[in-house]
Amino acid sequence: MTPVRFASLLLSSLLFCTPLPAKERKGEQVESLNGKWDFTTDSQVATSASGTWDKMEVPGNWDTTPQYSTYRGTAWYRREFTVPAEWKGKRVRLKFDSVYHIAEVTLNGQVLGKHVGGYTPFAFDVTDTVRYGGSNTLLVSADNSYKRGAWWAWGGISRAVSLIANNDARIVWQHITADPNLATGAAPIVIQYKVANSSDKPLAVELVSQITGVSIAPLSVKGIVPAKGETILEARAVLPKKDVRLWHFDHPNLYACETTLSTGTTVLNSASDRFGIRKVEVTKDGLFLNGEQIRAGGYNRVSDSNKTGSTEPDSLVKGDVDLMKKSGAVIARLMHVPLAPNLLDYLDEKGMLIFGEIPVWGDNDPQKVKDNPRTRQWLKEMIERDYNHPCIIGWSPGNELTWHMDYIASMKDYILKELDPHRLVSYASFTASRKEYNPTNDPVSVVDLAMLNTYSGNPASFAGAAAALRSKWPDKALFFSEYGDGQIGGGLDARIKNIDGIWAAIAKNPWVIGGALWTFNDYRSDYKGTPASGNREWGVVTVDRELKAAYWQMRRLYSPVHSIRADNGVLTIVPRKRSEIPSYTLRGYTVQWKLLDAAGQTASQGSLPVPDLAPDTPAWTTPIPGAKNAASLSVTLVTPTGYDVADWNSAETKQP
C-alpha cells in the first residue's frame, strides 16, 4: 500500500473517552463578558449618549428574536464592565470567539480594530486601553450582510467574549502531532509551541509537557523568546507500545498534554490540550484508518437552530451528534464553515471523521483568488485553533467552486507549508465529473482525495460521476461529500425517494470511500427554492430535531452489519461485505437482549460480547439463554461508545 500522503495527527486529550474538565491556566485570569448586552440597529443611538437600547444575550444571534428575526445589516452591542485593579501590570487581551460576519470593536472611545470572518476567534491587546479598577465601555458592531451558501446568515456575537490577563510571556498554542508506527506499535510525539513575549527584553524560558497516563518522562525544551516577539519551540519523544491506544471512531482514546511555561523557578503560564494517536492514509484504493480500510457514510449538518441560531449550545451539539452516531454516521465533511469548539470536542470523544472547511462557496465567490490573504487568514485561524482534534482528518479551502485550480492549489500549498503538513487537503467539487473539467484545469489533480457533490434521483448519475472521475484521475479515491435528490418535506412521514438505489450506486465501486447525505437537519434559509416554512427541508430530522421516516431509512443503510436477528432464540449477526458501504471491522461491540413474558413484563435480560467481525467474514451465531420460552425477544447491537445502531424484535416480525 503506497499512500498518496498521510495525516497521522490526532487531537483531543482525555484518556480513554472520559471528558476532561476545562483546566485553569496558570499565570492567567479570565473574566467572562457574556450575558445581557445593550443592543440597537440604529446608528444614531449607537453613536450618541442618548437613545433607547434593547437587550440582547451574548452569546446569541439577534435573528432568533421576533423583533429582529429578518434583520440584515449592521447592529451594535454595548456593555459596561470593570477590570480588576490588581490586573494592572499584566498583559490584558479582549477575546471574541466569533462574531458574524464583520466586527468593529471600540473600547472607551478608542477603535481597537476590525475582524472579517464569522466563525473563528480574534483578540485585541487592551493593556493600555482599559481602566483598571474603574468602569469601561465596550462597543461592538456586527454586520451580517455578507452571505455565502444556502444557510441563514445568523447575525451577532455568536460565541463567548472574555477578558484575559497574562504575564509578559504566554503560550499562544501548542500543537501535538502523534504519528504511530503501526509495525512496532510505538508512537513518536512532536509538540510545537508558539510562545509570545510582550516585555522589552528577551526572555529565557523552559516548556515542560506531561502527557497523562503514560510511562515516559515529561517532554521539555528551552529557548529564548525575543523582546516583543514570538518564537516556535519543539519537543520530541516516543511513546512505547504499552502506552499507545489508537484513536478510532469506535474507540476514541484521548490523551491530555499539560504544559507549563517557566523562566527560572517562576511559572508564567500553562496550557492543557487533548490529542489522539491515529494514522490516516489515502491511496487510489480508498481510505485507511490505522492501517484498516474504512468505507462508511455520514451527514452534512448545518449549524442551525431556530431557537439558538448558530450559537451551538452543548445540549444541541450533543443531541445532534448522538442522533447521527445512533444512525451509523462515521465520516462527513459536516459543514461549510469552521465548527464550534464544543462540537469538535464531542466529535473527538464520540468518534467521527470530518473535514474542516472555510466558507468559500459557489461559482461566483469573490474569495476564490490565488493566494487570497483573507482566505489564508480564515484557514490560519481555523487550523491554529483546531489542530489538536483527532476527528479532523483533513482541511478544505472551499465548496462547489468553478475554474478554481489556482485558488485551491495555492491554498493547499499554504496549508502544507505554513499550517499543517500532516493532514489531508481536499475540497468539495461539483464540476469534476463534467466534460470541460480535466486534470489540466481541475484541482482534483493537486488534492489528496476527490470529494464530489452530486444530486439526482437517478442512481445512474452517481455511478456515472464515479466513473468519470476514475477515468480522469485513476490515482484518486472518491468521497461523495454531498449526495441526495432534493428537499423531502418537513413532515415526520417524509422519506428519501430511491435512496436504496442511490446508496447502492455509491457503494458499487471499491475506490469510493462513502458519502455524506445532505442534510442531517432541516435549516432556516432564504435561498431560492426554500418552502413557505422558511426552512430548507432536506433533513432526516426537523428544525426541532424530531425524527422523520427518512432517519430510519438512513439508520438501516448506515448499519455496520448486514443484519441482526434472533430467530428461535439463536442470535445471528451477518457482517457487511467489503463491496458494501459501510464496511469496516467491528471490535468491542455488544448485543443487549431482553425477554418478555406473555404479560409483556421483562422476564430476563442481559448482554453478550460480540467477537471481532471483519467484512466478508461468516455470520456469527450464539444462543440466547431462555429465549425459547419467552413470548417475545428483542436484541440490540451496541457500539463500544454506547450507541444502539441496529436492532430486531420478534414481536414486530410476527405482525401481519
Automatic annotation (TrEMBL):
Keywords: Glycosidase, Hydrolase, Signal. GO terms for molecular function: hydrolase activity, hydrolyzing O-glycosyl compounds. The keyword Signal applies. Residues 175-278 form the Glycoside hydrolase family 2 immunoglobulin-like beta-sandwich domain. The keyword Hydrolase applies. GO terms for biological process: carbohydrate metabolic process. Residues 1-22 form the signal peptide. Residues 32-164 form the Glycosyl hydrolases family 2 sugar binding domain. InterPro entries: Beta-gal/glucu_dom_sf (IPR036156), Galactose-bd-like_sf (IPR008979), GH (IPR017853), GH2_Domain-Containing (IPR051913), Glyco_hydro_2 (IPR006101), Glyco_hydro_2_cat (IPR006103), Glyco_hydro_2_N (IPR006104), Ig-like_fold (IPR013783). Residues 280-562 form the Glycoside hydrolase family 2 catalytic domain. Belongs to the glycosyl hydrolase 2 family. This is Beta-galactosidase/beta-glucuronidase.
